[in-house]
Write a structure and sequence with these properties.
Order of helices and strands: EHEHEHEEEHHEHEEHEEHEHEEHEHE
Number of domains: 3
Radius of gyration: 21 Å
Largest sheet: 5 strands, mixed
Helix content: 25-40%
Structural class: alpha/beta
Strand order of the largest sheet: 3-2-4-5-16
CATH architecture of the largest domain: 3-Layer(aba) Sandwich
CATH class of the largest domain: Alpha Beta
Number of strands: 16
CATH topology of the largest domain: Rossmann fold
Length: 345
């Protein structure tokens, strides 16, 4: 179902003279990780598979790879993110094998409702087919904008769960190609433009206005629950791509300036179960924006993002999605397999 480019990976590992590697995989690619491990073992490279949960390119297991004596880390399923890595790391985006143009052609009438000038975005799984989609739409009379985004992403037109910079271009509306609601809802909130999500597998087309409204209502409910909170735990993550220690310190300072008690908490895997012993009234998560959102039903106490805290403290009125922004992007990353290594190598 996904392309792994295993022979290109093998060649790169040979260039590195790697004898032992750690393979890191998200939940949906565990079988592909097994396949790749078997393939590499057949070619004389000892392959260990990480069984830990992986949350994205922001969560590389390079420290674990170094501890295990591995010569390299293979990170499946996500595109390269600029991080200070401890071992050579091969990022392998998992490109889905699905006909995106077919889904677009079946939904042309809905797409036309976006207007003539549209922004086109997707997740890394479908980024390889974005040019095909753009060409198809342009042939249908649309003016298609594919934003470069900032330095946190690898490909033009790519959106992450924490970064929608590629969608912020001049357009009447945004067309998202992919599955799930989180990414297109984030696009709608970040751009404040009509957003249509098309699922290339099912062919379904869903407008995000109602989903965005539903999302905001749920988040306002969390803000309301924290209204009387006096003691806040401010949580940041030690995951390399989620470590926002400077921002977390600012939040602690802000809370104290408003007469609240605040303490900085540092965790790797952020979960409410690990926080049960603390005596805080509410939490602010200054890490991946999805942490306080995806599992909010499992948190017994209010959990907010930094921007939601600003609403609580009366510093802003309009709801804004929390994003982790990157630096300036100078050029596009190559399509296919992304290979990046520590600067010291």
């Amino acid at each position: 179902m996904y392309e792994l480019h295993e022979r290109e990976v093998l060649e790169k590992l040979k260039e590195l003279n790697a004898k032992r590697v750690l393979i890191q995989t998200p939940e949906g690619l565990k079988r592909e990780a097994q396949f790749l491990a078997n393939f590499l073992e057949e070619h004389g490279i000892e392959s260990l598979i990480s069984g830990d949960v992986n949350y994205g390119a922001c969560d590389p297991a390079d420290r674990e790879a170094k501890m295990l004596g591995c010569d390299a880390l293979i990170h499946l399923g996500h595109s390269y993110m600029l991080l200070n890595l401890e071992v050579p790391t091969i990022f392998i985006p998992a490109f889905a094998k699905v006909d995106v143009v077919k889904a677009l052609s079946e939904n042309l009438e809905e797409i036309k409702k976006l207007g003539k000038k549209i922004a086109l975005v997707t997740t890394v799984q479908h980024i390889k087919d974005l040019n095909k989609a753009k060409e198809f739409l342009e042939n249908e009379g649309f003016e298609v904008k594919v934003g470069k985004g900032d330095g946190r992403i690898s490909f033009s037109g790519q959106v992450l769960g924490c970064n929608f910079s590629a969608a912020k271009v001049e357009a009447n509306g945004v067309l998202f190609i992919g599955t799930g609601y989180f990414h297109p809802v984030g696009v709608a909130l970040a751009t404040k433009k009509p957003t249509l999500a098309i699922n290339p597998y099912s062919g379904d087309a869903v407008w995000m206005d109602r989903e965005a409204e539903r999302f905001i209502r749920k988040r306002w409910a969390q803000i309301a629950k924290a209204y009387d909170a006096e003691k806040f735990g401010v949580i940041t993550s030690t995951k390399k791509g989620q470590l926002r220690i400077g921002e977390a310190r600012k939040i602690v300072k802000l809370l104290r300036e408003h007469g609240k008690e605040a303490q900085l908490i540092v965790m790797n895997h952020i979960s409410y179960q690990a926080l049960e012993g603390f005596d805080f009234d509410a939490y602010v998560v200054v890490a991946c924006p999805r942490v306080p959102i995806d599992d909010v039903e499992n948190w017994r106490k209010p959990v907010l993002t930094p921007k939601e805290l600003e609403i609580l403290l009366g510093l802003r009125e309009d709801y804004e999605f929390d994003e982790i922004m990157g630096g300036k992007r100078d050029q596009d990353e190559p399509m296919g397999i992304s290979l990046k290594f520590p600067k010291s190598l």
